[in-house]
Amino acid sequence: MKEYLGPVSVVLISLLGHTDKNGAALIRGSANFRSSTAVVADSSLKDAFRNDFLIGTALNLTQIDEKDPLVTQFIPLQFNAITPENIMKCEVIQPGWDDYNFGPADRFVAYGRKHNMFIVGHTLIWHSQLSAFVKNIRSSDSLRLFMKNHIEKVAGRYAGQINSWDVVNEALNEDGSLRKSLFLEKLGPDYIRLAFELAARAAPNTELYYNDYNIEQPQKRAGVIAMVKKLRESGTRIDGIGIQAHWSIKNIPLQDIEASIIAYSALGLKVSFTELDLTCLPNPWDLTGSDVNQNYENSPFMNPYPSGLPDSMQAKLTKSYEDLFRLFVRYKDRIERVTFWGVCDGQSWLNNWPVRGRTNYPLLFDRNCKPKPAYEKVMALSDNP
């Protein structure tokens, strides 16, 4: 195991405010901008784990367009795989029946190719973030035609450029049964097979993944395994499983994660952790009581660390990441990719979900892209010089 020496050199660049595609601040929370400069380590996650698995991140348009000098340098230093946060979801890439908005997705793919990165398409078929016209489809034939057109045009456009597609996203309930969705209602369970077969034809040399959250849990895992076996029995290609990895530092389900890596890889599937972040804050479902109408916004209880993470919680976050990556390294021969859902704390969706306006600390880099203690512990697990 190599010795991690910490940040050897720093880059000091002023951070300016930026906005995401919805105009919301990229860097959020009152813990932001304790300094007008940012500190970046010249050590690299992607290099440390280069013989183990890919290290990825999710990108928004500001980052794709390289508008922030600090982040422009930082992302290709640390990561060798990228996933788009929102720009390939239906509501963005196909706002109308014959209306495709390929501009942002084209820039995302160009960014990945420029930096020689593994490029993930996210996502082709998902019940959420659908365009309004899709939600209003009434007939099964029309919905089937939408699926055919959407997958052929989107996956086909980037065939040979995108390395992996999240073909179907979040199709299962917690008990492993199929989620009630527009696709299930109109097309029945066969819509999953149809999506994978269309994707295989449109992008024959691209990895095809099923992506979902909580699929490390036994019941939902069993549902995934049953789905995969059914697809295989029909002769349908599926290459990998994406475990989203949105967990809490209160309880990382290490035993379930390990069992899932073993179970999925035993099916001959690639395993990736596709949306990794570890929330440090309480969430509404953690509470007891029956007042479902309670407003959690602006609640001090729900936003306990607006000015910075206490040392005790920082230590807990650090230990959680260390334990998790120790497990990943143990099964490095079965894991293809570990992708963080965001570049740094300020960008994380967990600042605004499930409660808006909070200050969360779920990633390895703080709001100035400075490595946190968790980063140092993760780097120390690498055997690569």
**What is the string of SSEs from the N terminus onward?**
EEHEHHEHHEHHEHHEHEEHEHEH
Number of strands: 11
Task: Kindly state the percentage of residues in helix.
Answer: 25-40%
CATH fold assignment: TIM Barrel
Oligomer: single chain
Strand neighbour order, sheet with most strands: 3-4-5-6-7-8-10-11
CA(first)-CA(last) distance: 9 Å
**Sheet with the most strands, sense and barrel status:** 8 strands, parallel, barrel
Strand content: 15-25%
Quickly count the helices. 13
* Net shape: globular
Radius of gyration using CA atoms only: 21 Å
Instruction: Return the structural class.
Output: alpha/beta
At the fourth level of CATH, the homologous superfamily is: Glycosidases
Overall pLDDT score:
89
| Count of spatially separate domains | 1
Task: Supply the CATH class.
Answer: Alpha Beta
User: Any idea what the CATH architecture is?
Assistant: Alpha-Beta Barrel
Structure description:
With 385 residues, the chain is α/β, with parallel strands linked by helices. The chain has a single domain (13-283, 299-379), classed as TIM Barrel. It has helices at 45-48, 61-64, 69-78, 90-93, 103-114, 132-135, 140-157, 182-187, 190-202, 218-233, 254-266, 311-330, 373-379; strands at residues 13-14, 37-38, 54-59, 81-84, 118-126, 164-169, 207-212, 240-243, 246-248, 270-279, 335-340. Helix 12 (311-330) runs parallel beside helix 13. The radius of gyration is 21 Å and the shape is globular.
